[in-house]
């Protein structure tokens, strides 16, 4: 009987893992694929680059705002119901996207997708933590990390293939089967019963963080264009956004029932893990920007060829996350986290010296090693940080983590794109356009390598046994 129970438990855990993986992968992959479609939308709908960015912003803002609500709504109605609701909304947005008749309707359906994605992303990890014991969470998070980090890496390849050989509507249609399977798997495997609860809603905190997210995201996305026209609007949006976040922090620290309990940052393990994951995210997004710029804009490779060069890195990243998770489960972060940081920093530094001047095979080899570095950082850091918190705080902690990642990603892309353009214009006075582009890309990678290396002290502060971390953390939070 015990053996039958264990088999059934394993089936349930693996079913839950598949459901969480499908949901997260669908959401993130869809967003990364649409990044490469912006030039196509500009041509089809006769719009400029600033207007075309609304395909991304129209998804990003609703997703981040909804993320802040996901923990509260899950406490009210159960995580299972809210996760299914999120996938239903994402499915509806995808179905409607296939029949979009103009660009505003397309953006509107992206908003629906974003709201659904905002419910799915934070709850997926929280649900996994409920079904996997602490000694198996590294493995589970590693598999889930395939969605979080691998999807942006393989998105350009899949997007390039679809745009080359099919209609842009397939960018939305491809979400339909995975979303349906995810909804049925979640309904079948997750066992949660709804119980009526009375919870106070932190309206002031929600308004403040919404103001911060909306204004700061809009301001950041206007930076490349906003200082040539209506620069006052860009500055005002960024200032109001920063004020919104400051007010949010003040409100959360002075209310009895916070929307997101920022006191979790008193836990040094969770704080260090958040810093490490944020920089790792910046490294990932800088590569998402710089590598296609190098290959397409500077070296004039096709979008499809660029996708194939980047594809092996994405595969390796997923494998490395699983390996990193297993090592975390066995021996903690003592070895794997510093190794990942050194690998990522070293390869980024080498790219800073050689990018644009090496063969495609050598570039692919360096990117494969880079994939191992990112995988060895992301899963161990994320899991160790969340393991340091009581289980009831995981969903809201993931909400905050996801918002931070999205903002870091947006800021990274804007800052490095501005740095690239500025340095290239300066260097073009003394050298060819291609040489100027290569030198600008190289300097960007050198800057990123130094930032990554600064994570070593934070990783060493996390180098303790998992069990000890959990006990210490519970005493601090208690």
- Residue share in helices? over 70%
Continuous helix count: 19
Supply the number of structural domains.
Answer: 3
Mean pLDDT level:
84
Name the CATH homologous superfamily of the largest domain: MFS general substrate transporter like domains
Radius of gyration: 22 Å
Main sheet record: none
Share in β-strands: under 5%
Shape from CA axes?
Answer: globular
What is the CATH third-level topology name of the largest domain? Growth Hormone, Chain: A
Write down the oligomeric state: single chain
Number of strands: 0
H/E element sequence: HHHHHHHHHHHHHHHHHHH
N-C termini distance: 39 Å
Question: Which structural class is indicated by helix and strand composition?
Answer: mainly alpha
Under CATH at level 1, the class of the largest domain stands as: Mainly Alpha
Model description:
This protein is mainly α. The protein folds into three domains: 1-199, Growth Hormone, Chain: A (Up-down Bundle), CATH 1.20.1250.20; 202-258; 260-478, MFS general substrate transporter like domains (Growth Hormone, Chain: A), CATH 1.20.1250.20. It has 19 helices and no strands. The chain has helices at residues 2-36, 38-45, 49-52, 54-77, 79-97, 103-131, 137-165, 170-173, 175-189, 203-226, 231-253, 268-298, 303-331, 336-354, 360-387, 394-427, 433-453, 456-461, 466-477. The longest helix has 35 residues, at 2-36. The protein starts with a helix and ends with a helix. The model is unreliable at 464-478 (pLDDT under 50).
């Amino acid at each position: 009987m015990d053996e039958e129970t264990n088999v059934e438990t394993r089936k349930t855990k693996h079913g839950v893992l598949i459901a969480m993986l499908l949901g997260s992968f669908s959401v993130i992959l869809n967003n990364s694929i649409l990044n490469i479609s912006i030039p196509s939308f500009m041509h089809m709908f006769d719009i400029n680059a600033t207007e075309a960015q609304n395909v991304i912003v129209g998804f990003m803002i609703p997703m981040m705002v909804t993320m802040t609500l996901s923990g509260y709504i899950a406490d009210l109605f159960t995580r299972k119901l809210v996760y299914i609701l999120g996938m239903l909304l994402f499915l509806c947005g995808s179905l409607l996207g296939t029949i979009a008749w103009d660009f505003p309707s397309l953006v509107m359906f992206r908003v629906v997708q974003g709201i659904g994605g905002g419910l799915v992303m934070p709850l997926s990890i929280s649900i996994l933590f409920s079904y996997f014991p602490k000694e198996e969470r590294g493995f589970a998070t590693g598999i889930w990390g395939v969605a979080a980090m691998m999807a942006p890496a393989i998105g350009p390849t899949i997007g390039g293939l679809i745009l080359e050989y099919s209609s842009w509507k397939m960018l939305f249609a491809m979400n339909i089967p995975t979303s349906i399977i995810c909804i049925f798997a979640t309904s079948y495997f997750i066992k949660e019963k709804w119980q009526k609860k009375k919870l106070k809603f932190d309206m002031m905190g929600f308004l403040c963080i919404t103001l911060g997210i909306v204004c700061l995201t809009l301001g950041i996305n206007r930076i490349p264009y906003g200082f040539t026209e209506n620069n006052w609007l860009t500055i005002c949006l960024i200032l109001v956004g920063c004020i919104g976040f400051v007010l949010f922090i003040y409100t959360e620290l002075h209310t009895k029932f916070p929307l997101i309990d920022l006191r979790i940052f008193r836990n040094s393990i969770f704080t260090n893990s958040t810093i490490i994951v944020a920089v790792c995210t910046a490294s990932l997004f800088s590569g998402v920007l710089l590598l296609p710029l190098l290959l397409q804009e500077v070296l004039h490779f096709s979008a499809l060829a660029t996708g194939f060069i980047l594809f092996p890195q994405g595969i390796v990243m997923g494998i490395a996350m699983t390996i990193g998770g297993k090592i975390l489960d066995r021996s903690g972060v003592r070895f794997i986290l510093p190794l990942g940081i050194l690998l990522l920093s070293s390869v980024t530094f080498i790219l800073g010296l050689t990018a644009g001047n090496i063969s495609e095979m050598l570039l692919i080899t360096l990117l494969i090693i880079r994939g191992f570095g990112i995988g060895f950082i992301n899963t161990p850091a994320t899991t160790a940080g969340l393991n340091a918190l009581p289980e009831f705080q995981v969903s809201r902690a993931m909400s905050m983590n996801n918002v931070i990642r999205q903002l870091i990603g947006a800021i990274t892309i804007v800052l490095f794109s501005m740095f690239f353009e500025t340095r290239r214009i300066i260097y073009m006075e003394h050298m060819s356009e291609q040489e100027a582009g290569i030198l600008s890309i190289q300097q960007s990678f050198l800057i990123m390598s130094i930032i990554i290396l600064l994570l070593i002290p934070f990783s060493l502060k996390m180098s303790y046994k998992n069990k000890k971390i959990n006990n210490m953390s519970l005493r601090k939070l208690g």
